[in-house]
């Protein structure tokens, strides 16, 4: 009778060990998948993320915003001409070179307005290249060998009794759900970033129409800073995910599985908080308001 009970206990113990090991494997698999999936999502340009939305935004910009930008650039150029002439001692000291300079500014302003969308998309092409280069490095450095991890944890799991395994399974299950929730959070952050990019792109001709004027030019320059900060926000997201993956990878050599579970949970919370700060960090670096 004792042998039968021992066999049942051993079977339950082995089942709990396999169940707990499966949860740990799932957690580290999710960490591996998160790095690759985020790199693929962050590296998309506005046209690649959703072609239908991009075409809609481009049509709105060309058909609705450019006529308004045309009126603004007309006003800006008239204002530029008046101030250029009158600032020289009330027109008593007028240099003919200022007219060549004015014509040059007008040509540059018209060129920028007519190529607004190409310039805007070029900024995100540069951001895409940066993210892709970072993704290849981060993915190679943070990949977790799940088999080695499981073999390392197996001895620790075998040494636990059924009660300890049940507690560990409950803890690991909660952390596993938290890690899976990161994918949802990342989707929220990335979708919000792309919507913000589309909003900026939709009105791009207006700030571009002000760039050649001294007084109004800060509108255009701040717009460019904001676009660059959005482009590089993807890079900061990749850096944060890479840091998270490295921290999780370093836990493979740990022996206290309860501490491993708690640390993964803590790292997941920190990752969530950090992802929401990437926008403000990027804007502060590029001095975008």
How would you sum up this structure in a few lines?
By secondary structure, the chain is an all-alpha fold. 85% of the residues lie in helices and 0% in strands.
Order of helices and strands: HHHHHHHHHH
Spatial extent as radius of gyration: 28 Å
For the termini, the CA-CA separation is 76 Å
Strands, total number: 0
> What fraction, in percent, of the residue positions are helical?
over 70%
Strand percentage:
under 5%
Mean pLDDT score, rounded? 79
Helical segment count: 10
Oligomer: single chain
Largest sheet: none
Structural class by SSE content: mainly alpha
Outline type: rod-shaped
Descriptive notes:
By secondary structure, the chain is mainly α. It has ten helices and no strands. The protein has helices at residues 2-42, 46-49, 51-86, 97-114, 116-142, 146-158, 162-202, 205-208, 217-249, 257-285. The radius of gyration is 28 Å and the shape is rod-shaped. The model has no long low-confidence stretch (mean pLDDT 79).
Outline the fold blueprint.
Blueprint: H1 2-42, H2 46-49, H3 51-86, H4 97-114, H5 116-142, H6 146-158, H7 162-202, H8 205-208, H9 217-249, H10 257-285
Helix pairs in contact: 1-5, 1-6, 1-7, 1-9, 3-4, 3-7, 5-9, 7-9, 7-10, 9-10
Characteristic terms for this protein:
289 residues; rod-shaped; mainly alpha; single chain
